[in-house]
Amino acid sequence: MKAPDQISPAPAGEPAPRNLTGNAPTHEAPLLPPLAVVKTPYFHLLGYSVAGEETVIQAPELNVVFDIGKCPRPVLTSDFCLLTHGHMDHSAGLAYYLSQRFFQGMTPGTVICPAAIADAVSGVIRSWTALEGKAIEHRVIGLKTGEEYELRKGLIVRTFATRHTVPCAGFLLLDRREKLKPELAQQNLPGHILRDMKARGEKITYTLDVPLIAYTGDTSMGETLLQDGVRDARVLVTECTFFEQGHRKRAAVGQHLHVNEFVEVLPRLENELVLISHLSRRTYLRWAQKTLQKAMEGLTIKPKVEFFMDHAQKLQVRPSKAAAFTPVEPPSTTDTEDA
Q1: For residue range 150-169, what is the model confidence (pLDDT) as tens digits?
Q2: CA 212 to CA 214: how far, in whole Å?
Q3: Residue 247 falls within a domain, yes or no?
Q4: What is the dihedral of CA 94, 95, 98, 100, to 10 degrees?
Q5: Residue 280 · residue 239 · CB < 8 Å
Q6: Residues 238-284: tens digit of each pLDDT
Q7: 3-state SS assignment for residue 106
Q8: Rounded Cα distance, 39 and 61, in Å
Q9: How far apart are CA 176 and CA 251, in angstroms?
């Protein structure tokens, strides 16, 4: 008996049968359009972001996806969807995300969103439930500005204030650690003494929050980036939609960041990496890069800044159930020399 994923050979003289991905090998198939993959020392960021079209950025190792766009298949593997606001280019794939996880036997998806839109999000899901004729297991959690939710032990999501044309919020992922108080650490006390102190109700630790990712979604004020945890997160993902000098008014009307506002706050950012998302199709990436470089020429202090979609590549995914992404690694010099 042939393996279930094999394609039966065509009879003599007839064209070969095609699967859903053409005649590509059944164990992997190209995923289009190309998605950006950014590799940091701590995690990957994977996704797609074009203003008005689609924004979805996943941190696979942290089990979250920021916004959902049209829900490209790799992001189905994240249990938590952190939805910044309800505009269609950020939220269109929401019902599909929850339905596909249900269909594929995965744990129910959880949507975390600003409290102001939680009822509307639930209403959208109820409408799709009526259309599909079956209930989709899920959770919708609304958070007010500054509120937190524990994704797993030691990994916390906290909302922060942003400003857009509709109710919105940014998300900060925190690595929360309990550390031994410095005065106790200096004494080098044995473990049994520390356990006895803890049993007596003495506080022997303090909480240390390490901001991993700050994700703004759509926002208009440069001051957004200067909030505690945002300016010093290891990676900051922020929109910057407008780059033409004559478009400051358009940026203000649409409540998006203009490059001038972005550059004004840049010297005060302490992030290891700042990723710019949400360029529109009318803005050529290379031109935007040159415009930003020119605007940054006078800055003596600045973090590393890159454009998210400058990291686009074709990924490989399994054609059946949702699977984590497989980035295409460039060949090493050693491999080339050995070939």
Answers
A1: 999 999 999 999 999 999 99
A2: 7
A3: yes
A4: -110
A5: no
A6: 999 999 999 989 999 999 999 999 999 999 999 999 999 999 888 99
A7: coil
A8: 11
A9: 36
Tens digit of pLDDT for each residue in 172-200? 999 998 877 888 788 888 888 888 888 88
Best CA proximity match to 314, nearest among 300, 327, 298, 295: 327
| Residue 48 domain boundaries | 33-328
Domain presence at residue 6:
no
Contact 314, 279 (CB under 8 A): no
E strands, the chain, are 20-23, 29-39, 44-50, 54-59, 64-66, 80-82, 109-114, 138-143, 148-152, 155-160, 170-180, 205-215, 235-239, 273-277, 305-307, 312-317
DSSP 3-state of 182:
helix
User: pTM here?
Assistant: 0.84
Token representation of residue 49: 């972001």
Q: Domains in the chain: how many in total?
A: 1
Is 321 strand, coil or helix?
coil
Query: DSSP class of residue 258?
Result: B
Answer for the pair 274, 304: CB distance below 8 angstroms, yes or no: yes
Is 333 within the bounds of a domain? no
